Input
Amino acid sequence: MDTPTVVRPKISAKHVGKIYDTADGPFVAVQDFSLDVAEGEFVCIVGPSGCGKSTFLRMAAGLESISSGSINIEAAPDSDKPANSVVFQEYAVFPWKTVIENVSFGLQMRGISEKERTQVARYWLDRVGLTKFANYYPHQISGGMKQRVSIIRALANDPEVLLMDEPLGALDAQTRVVLQEELLRIWEETRKTVLYITHSLEEAVLLGDRVVLMSAQPGGILDIYHIDLPRPRSFETTTLARFSEYRALIWEKLSAEVTRAMEMQE
Amino acid sequence: MTQQTGVSAFRHDANRRTIVLMGLSVVLTHLILLVSGAWFAFAWPAIGMSFIMLVLICERIGRLVPASQRNLYERSLALGFPTVVLSVWQLGGDLGLINRIWFPPPSEIGKALWSVTVNYDRFSETSLLGRPWLIPSAYQEGGFSGVGTLLSESHLLATVMRVFSGFVLGAIPGIFVGVVMGLNQTVRLMLDTTLSAVYVLPKIAIFPIVMLMFADPFGEGPKIVVVALSVFILMAINTMAGVRQIDPVFLMAGRNYGAGHWQMLRHVILPGAMPVIFAGLRIALGTAMIVVISVEFLRAKQGVGFMTFYYWEVLVPEKMYAGLVVVMAMGILFTATLYWLQKRLMPWRK
Ligand SMILES: Nc1ncnc2c1ncn2[C@@H]1O[C@H](COP(=O)(O)OP(=O)(O)OP(=O)(O)O)[C@@H](O)[C@H]1O
Ligand SMILES: [Mg+2]
Output
């Protein structure tokens, strides 16, 4: 072809702003947030608590209106995949559905036959070792399992992009490491485009191709770091000297921002 | 370890001893009173004291019951206490401690219950159950309509039909309006005050108005409608609360995973509100019973409430009590049905 193929970014956020209309007047939660994410890229977002990470993610998911700017998610032509699937910070696993019904929820809503969606759900349950719990209700399984259900509910839906909001935030340190490795393995296979919010810097450096550092009040982009660590990554990656360097580099700026955010709240 | 077992074994023994001592003291008190001839004078204080001792004894027994037999213990307490109360009532009646005319003992009430069940009351042309044993002969004479005429004399069926139709006619639109109010702020703001105002109105107070609306004010129509109205208001308010308490993250998850309007209702909103809806149904059931019995007191030729009031008017207290027993049995039956429904519809809440 003589026309150069322009690689369109998978996610393209342009000058995104969000103003909440509160009782005390307008509150600027996100301001001038621009970010392009390439197809198959894993981008992590870190920032002080309350800086607008979830707000941005919800806007990208189409669950919250955008006050200014635009967010576009590029779909492959004639693909019937859903544009995005969110893994929510609060799990959001339906307590009234069994584990397998939760995992196949997206497929069911899109009218996929029971046989097919059960098959897909079984595959993912098997991947994360939850086969035995397929017919349990969420209140009968542990927090770690619930979060796994919430993650594979998104994966089973096979979306164009995965939007994950602190998916491992509420877990204990051990379960967290296990799930990080699981996530890395699955990502290596699927190479999905992922936008991943975390409050753990280690996690961001371990998982991400890039780490976006957000500023607080209003939430914007403070800095973006390319994480040039070899793939496939695993827990071993955290022992590399370069890993520690990245972490120290980002931490310097993040800690200053966290302090600033805390002082602003006072 | 060994020392601990030693201590707890000691505690067990101490508990056992106390239980035996307390039991003996109750028996002794009554014996002494009997022998001294003062029992009748002090019967009520003695019975009162015995009840308190019974509570203390059961409390101690509770400490000794191993976890494996806990269930049995709890059941015995739940069923044992009413049994004891009924026995004391019976004994009190037999011994002349209680006025048998106004407080007929359980045995009399049982007899009255049997009598209203098997006998046809010529004056009011009714019977409690509708004499089901006559169904075969009624069928031979008049076919299904013959059976219908026979059963239409039943107090129980009349009340059950009123409660059931009123309940269904009120609950379904009530849940529907509640969902709309829960989801739509405009509708909620418009209806909330009105419904809350009607909610505090005693439902029986609107019965005269409802009667005005019907061509036949003494027919079934007004009775069913007044039950339906009270159920409707309760269900609308409760369902709205149930929908509003759903964590918004579930609504977001539903939307994000592609649920359309009906799918949201079916997969997210109704199941999310279900626990509160069922709490509402239980309250509505109680209200429906109150309303239907009051309405039958006021204006009816039939029904368990009518029967109870009728025997008050003709002064047959034990049959009046029999009517109350039937009301109670109905309440228990309806509640059990609701629990059964709840188990079927909410399997995730064991
Ligand atoms: N619906 C809303 N109305 C008004 N203000 C809101 C609303 N939602 C969020 N905010 C405010 O917007 C800011 C950003 O919230 P957001 O939840 O996006 O933060 P976050 O970065 O995800 O925080 P965390 O790390 O604690 O999850 C906060 O100050 C929050 O109080
Ligand atoms: Mg958040």
Summary: The CA atoms of residues 245 and 251 of chain A lie 10 Å apart.
